[in-house]
Amino acid sequence: MIRLNLYQLFKNKTLWAWPGLFLLFVVAMLYWGDIGAAQNSYSFTVILGEGEIPMSLVMSQLTSLVILICIIGLPNHFSKNLTPERGSLLLSKPISRRDFFFSDFASVSAVLFSYTIISMVLMAILLGVKAAIFPVQFFLAQLLFFPLLIMTYYISIVLFLILTDSYLGGALLGWIVTGFSSVFLNSDKILSMLGLQSGFASTFMDILSYLIPSAGGIQKIVGQVYAGGFSAIDGGLLAFVLASCLPFALLSYYLLQKKEF
């Protein structure tokens, strides 16, 4: 099952746009731009004309585009596997629903990690040619947290694919709900702005924050790495991010066990 999923994912031309995006960025930078030498192992600047842009800002824009690419491309194979014809055919083989579920997440994780490596190799070429630097903590942060960030969206998309039986509905709802997770990181400020400072409202928001995969939490952790390296990472926030992925993942697993094909 993993082999089939990997074949479908690597064959998915929409996902090819991810490394293609980084390739275009690197080629453009080699031709028109420059890199400011890093003062540490986790941050540097991009030089375009007379201006310098923090790499954190550039990566934020690239990340947003990659997330959009993955939201469009990643659910395609799972959506097809959920159709009655394909699902009943797959489960007629010696494949359990448990294997069906976990092999999908294993395959997606492998593909995300593979494309992240390709992207970082391209970035390493750019940094080596333009500035002769290799910011180790920058690359480690991308390898660890880039796949995890996209996986938070995919976990939500899988749940809504199972609930709606719709590729479009699953992708849109997964994107909207997971994107909303960043609100919970500033819930106190938002509640204060709305005039809802009661203990009940605060507790309710805290509970919700643990129910939705926290893409916003991962982005905040990556920002901490850009600001101060791995030593600046909030371990409690990282634990919260991992815990927030469990409810949707477990609910998806339960619903898949009950789903009729």
UniProtKB/TrEMBL annotation:
It comes from the Bacteria. The keyword Membrane applies. The keyword Glycosyltransferase does not apply. Keywords: Membrane, Transmembrane, Transmembrane helix. The chain crosses the membrane at residues 15-32, 53-74, 105-127, 139-162, 168-186, 193-212, 232-256. This is ABC-2 family transporter protein. It comes from Fodinibius salinus.
